Give the backbone structure.
Amino acid sequence: MKDVYLLAIESSCDETSMAIVKNGRTIESFTVLTQMDTHANFGGVVPEIASRMHTENITMVFEETLKKSNIKMEDVDAIAVTYAPGLLGSLLVGVEFAKTLCLVYKKPLIAVNHTIGHIYANAIEHTLEFPLLALVVSGGHTDLILMKKDYDFEILGSTLDDAVGECYDKVARVLGLKYPGGPNVDKLAMDGNDTYPLPKPVNDQSYNFSFSGLKSYIINLVHNETQRGNEIRKNDLAKSFQVTVVDELIRKVELALQHNDVKELIIAGGVSANRHLREEIKKVADKYQVHLSIPKIEYCTDNAAMIGAAAYPLYKQKKFADFTLNASSSGSIVQKKDN
Ligand code: KG4
Ligand code: ZN
């Protein structure tokens, strides 16, 4: 069979990224231009600045991605782009650029959901084994998803309030750490001990999560102790927070593994870069004897390689978008099922 080359574009938040992906799994060329240092000055992503920087950088990222590969635009079979969810202005830059390339080079357009992209980061250099259980943990998502085949998503549970990455970022801020908070909390926790007693998030038997209570508890604790002139042991608090969050994620993964017969367990999204989560999820996979897939660190956070991997099943099914495709800030992958 002829090899399929997809040019993939990702611009949903503060990374301008492009990749050329062969047959949905081999990365021929990959570029990520992050705006992180600019947004760090403001303590978080500023949407207007993000979209302006995507506009300034996208042509350069495109040229660089082509230059690094042996592929010419004539060899590309289709152009895939993240259209939702994310920051509207940022998404629009990618979507309009993709449409323009399709028009100029006469290529089909493939619309990819960003969250699905994170899941398919596990399909890079690896064949997904169905049925599988996916734990999606990012700045906007905390979902437990059952997949029986490609593009078949049953959401077993989700967060009832804050996403886990959002919670990491807020805790980082109150601890005075720079944006992006998650990796910095993770680093701080390495030298800490789990000595702060923290409330357990939703201690029930559902597959849902809740992290806002834990987040508020930590914010109040830091403010109260600071007002009293007491010192916060930042490493210990980071460690106690990390242990509490990961315990809860793991507890729900275990519950899902007990009630669903799966061959593979995968984790996806920015928080899947977390060291403690990566260690603990290995233990669970061993205990339940399921194959574990964890994306390489560079494919955990936002990137276009995962968008190319997620676009491949759509290409095979000839599910192409037309030029009415619009960006959307929200976009669930499916309707939630009751459990
Ligand atoms: O998937 P992602 O890059 O963007 C979204 O689609 O949301 O995830 C970003 C989130 C941020 O909240 C960031 O703080 C968190 O992932 N994150 C981490 C780590 N690396 C990134 N959280 C905990 N530990 C990490 N090592
Ligand atoms: Zn993401």
User: Anything to note?
Assistant: Residues 335-339 have pLDDT under 50 and may be disordered. The radius of gyration is 20 Å. The first strand starts at residue 5 and ends at 10. The beta strands are 5-10, 15-22, 26-34, 78-84, 109-113, 132-137, 142-147, 153-158, 264-268, 291-293.
